[in-house]
Amino acid sequence: MRYLQIRRTLYSLTGKWPKTSAIERTKEIERHWIPKLLDEHEKYEIDPENNNKEKMYVLPMFPYPSGRLHMGHVRVYTLSDTLARYYRLRGHRVIHCMGWDAFGLPAENAAFERSEEPIEWTKKNIAYMKQQIKQLACSFDWKRATTCDPNYYKWTQYIFLMLYREGLVYQKKAAVNWDPVDQTVLADEQIDEAGRSWRSGSIVEKKFLKQWFIRTRAFTQTAFYSTKTPYKPPSAALDLPPPPPEYDLVCAQIFTRHGSRALEGRKYDTLTKALWIQAKEENALTELGRQFGNDLQYFVDVNDQIGRGELSELGKHEQQGLAHRVAERLLPLFIKSLLRNESKSIQVVSSNKSRTKASLRAFVEGLPPSVVRLVDHQPPNPSLLFFHDNARYQTYLKNDRRLKNKLKSIERQSYSKQMARDILEQLYRPSFIDKLVDKQYCLTDHESDRSIRNEFDAVRMLHALYLIGSNLEQEGVGCLFEKYFSKNQSAWYAYLQDAKDYYEKGPGFLNQTITYDMAQILLDEFLVDSDECSQIDAKHFLRVRFGHAEGIIPFIALLKIPILSDKQTPPKEIYTYANNGWRGEIISPMSANIQWEIFRYHPRHHGRNSRPEDEKILSLVDNLDTLDKDDWQTLINIQRMWMGDCNGVNIQFKLKIPTNEFDFLETFTTKPETLLNVTHLYIRSNHKLARADLIEETKAGAKRLRTDAVHPLTGQPLPIFINDDADFGPKIRANMSMLNVQIGTPSTNPFDEAFARQHNISTILDSSAPGQTMDVETLMAELRSRGLGGYRTSGKLNDWCISRQRYWGTPIPMIHCKNCGVVPVPENELPVQLPPIENIKSSSRTGTSPLANAHEWLKTQCPKCGNQEAKRETDTMDTFVDSSWYFLRYLDNENTKKPFEPNIVNQSMPVDLYIGGLEHALTHLFVARFIQHFMYSKGLCTSIEPFKRFIPIGMVQGKTYKTLSGQYVRKDQVLTIDKDTTAHSLTKEPLQINWEKMSKSKYNGIDPEEIIDKYGVDFTRMLMLSFVHPRSLRNFTLEDGIAEGLQNWFKLFTYLYVDLIEPRTKSDTKSSINHEEFQQIEASLREQRLHTIYTVSFYIDSFFSIASAIIELQKLTRHLRKVSADVKKQSKEYSQSLCDLLVMMAPVIPCLSSELWIILQKQMKTNIDGYDLTKSLFEQKFPTLPVDYPGKINALFETTVFSSMPISRSQLATMTTADVLQHLIENDKQSEMKAFIAKNGLKLDRSRKLGDYCTTLIYERDPTIPYVEPIEPIVEKKKNKPPKKKPTS
Ligand SMILES: [Zn+2]
């Protein structure tokens, strides 16, 4: 900013109001106060007192360091700063951070065009823009995140790898949107309706590249139930892959543990109860201990009711779920078997224990009814499925000293001892536990030969109840015992349980094979049976065995699955999660099932596609309902529209002769049930395949492709026609390839029928086609099993492609090895740093990343096999990945161990107010929500949504002048004829006037520095915040008189305070008004002041409408201006008003307010209620309403308050929404409110409470009542009526 060097003349320095011109004074005030205000803010940041305050996380979207601030930035940051200052004055701990979204294209272009290092270009811009934001007196915490800093992108890579491990990142070759100008891939969302790039504006093309995608789907959660972990459908990472390309599924072998069940015998509960009774008799129960007695009794009753060892409801559901998944997975085999009219092709067998027999029954119940006749019940086989009953093994368990000592040493670590005590102390008094530790009790259950002799035994029993509880969820136990274990404790005991299982049943000691040996019988059976059922004339294709965890664990150990189960531990070491992958993050063999599938080579299959997904999206859609409607409505609508309803199915049709670009055509249909009636396909004439060399003309004059498509179910050839008249469905976005393909179904669609007749397309279907009787679900399952689509999707949403063929982005931390395929970079090698640009010869601009030329960087060692010729991934991430989690990093930005510490972050999350452009509402907010959902699912964040309220900021537009031929004209060439008429100054051609987004090419931009230079900082802030609601478009000009009006107000406002120094109007020493009149004026001043406090708070708290608040404050200013000099002299209310007004104005115009506050400090002779005049302005508190000032209840529809009434605040504070509603209706004397509600067909939607001073009932149209008529507000404007609505633009 340029300032003239002038003499110091400020009042705050000299005690005299300077006689300089207004603009000189303004500049000097700002030069003096801005550094002070920013310093003061730094002190605020580290004030320990903040920890006791309620948090308020105010977050403006962080900027891209493009070089200079534009008016849109100024609008966002001044609003954000004003709100931050407001909430600080209101006593909140405000978190207000700033960082930089610093990767991206312009820096890279600068680098390659001007051989300037992107980092240098970026740093330079950051320095300049930071100085500009500071110049606006914006009080940010600057010690935060910059996305191009390796200390930040290290953790972006780390999060990418987290997603990868969860199976949420994958790579596929795909048609991508290619921006030929920027030479980069774009997401669908970055293309406008006309098919142009959002950045370069060029028409987007399709290109085929191998890309990285982030998958949006259901997450897994960690549980602490060891072998008792209830089954869940396989997690994303575990999802069975489709058969390898060109292979067919032949048969499957399954060994499953039985479902969740009740306690088997009476050992744990009986002994625990005996201990409890002992404690009760000794009067040694704590309060929680007494409750535990009830819980225990309830648990015993539930178990007795189910029957000991019998399946719980959950157990049955688990087995039915397994049946569903098996049926879906093996559908082709089921169908084949049904079509061949076979029987007994699914063999089932149990161990003969009641729970395995019940599991078998539940499994069969879960199969589709049509296949039940295929089930072949084999005689139970205990020697195969209950093999752990053998004598040698049981002797080992009971007598092996090495085993016993190991388990004892694990369980009785000193840590464990303290933890056992901590757990028991919740239930029993310390003296009782002392005796237990002293082995003074010995409680034995003779039936099971178990006993409680010490604290370890006691907790082990208790923990067993906790584990079994999780299996009895639907019987009402579930988490009943969770309150007796903290998260740490349950995790520790889960570990002890796992360690016990590991040594007793699993891999155990190095070179110890007793567990493996006993499972060999089962492995032999798997092999023999696989051989049998993979024969061409095999009778059965599936064998399902129902066994026990005691069998599963040794069996998996025996299979020696790499990484997972081939992990024995030397006797001197101890098994832990850290040194052994046996209980991995992804799979735990201790609670798994085994499904073993045999494939046969069959060359007709190829080109399977990875699945698009809908589950996660659904939850992101569903969760939109939880967002605050007032702020989020626009966004909810946009996101819903974007994600769409998952109302159809995607289907892939293979091409008989694949081209270089396409193996298949993909389409989306809302009528999948018609799939069997499809006889031909249409593609649009703009489809990539509609090329002259691929097209031929039919006799009837239609254009068709030389190759046919293949029906995904029947294998029938389907001709493909080029026809734009077919119904391609609503056009959602340009370049949506799946909407460029449509199916033709003559039997259900008249257009298709006519077309088929005209072009002689055979409408007779192959009658032997499988699945003609299939329902839609079966059809979809069949498509999925063939890798040809079959997913419910919205037809809109694709997986998120994050690959960018650019240099200046976060490197994707992957390595390509010719032996191992794609291998993630080990975490301890992060970050993968960008190489310096001088090592990169040139950007080839052929669609590969410039990083492909960084030869030294490119070559690396494979972390898996050590291959020295492995290569790094050369794509970098889309910057939307960088910005998807910065709000988390802000809160713990110096963490060198992980992206953030959950305990720290969760103290401040979620963001309370998110402020930014609506243009980011789609992509950025979707990706940020996705990452937050992910973090939540991993237990790293406690809030599922990242942002509580969102203020979408409307665009700032400038006036444009255009010739009739569409050419923009510079302002100095515009000739103004009258208010609405202009012409070109040279050609005299008439010009069109419009408001458009500010842009250099339209000559309608305004540089913020220009305005600051002309009017000062405070004025610029106020200009940006006045007149329109933050959401509205801001048509910005300095020529509409608004600036002059504001300047007048500034003068009025300033002189309210300057007059305190030397009153300009001298009055008689004796007052001319009498006491009564004076009292009336005082009362009116008070009313006006309190009304202003009320309305200002209401506007900001409800709508964040600083503009409406400013109008109220301007009114108060004018009101105070009219007060006569002799009233001023004696009026306490006047002084109070001056203080209140200044503090309320301070967030908007911090510099001038600070200077005027010095006047109050020096001139106020008496103390003013609520203020400490010895302290600075921003150490004051925002004025509050006195307790006797009535609160208000408002009833609001759209933006109209249609009913309103005062109520005492103490009463309001304790009222529920129902009470408020009741009060409003009871006091609705003229029944105006009822009439309004009836007339407009409204119903109460929600209520919003603002402090203790106002509750608003928000009504919406009742969809069950037919639409009536446009509303007419019933309440006419009255004086002091409650604030009505947001200002108009
Ligand atoms: Zn390798």
Automatic annotation (TrEMBL):
Span of domain Aminoacyl-tRNA synthetase class Ia: 797-959
InterPro entries hit by this protein: aa-tRNA-synth_I_CS, aa-tRNA-synth_Ia, His_Pase_clade-2, His_PPase_superfam, Leu-tRNA-ligase, Leu_tRNA-synth_edit, Methionyl/Leucyl_tRNA_Synth, Rossmann-like_a/b/a_fold
UniProt GO MF annotations: aminoacyl-tRNA deacylase activity; ATP binding; leucine-tRNA ligase activity
Localization (cell): Mitochondrion
Enzyme class: ligase
Entry GO terms, CC: mitochondrion
Catalytically driven reaction(s): tRNA(Leu) + L-leucine + ATP = L-leucyl-tRNA(Leu) + AMP + diphosphate
Family: Belongs to the class-I aminoacyl-tRNA synthetase family.
Protein name: leucine--tRNA ligase
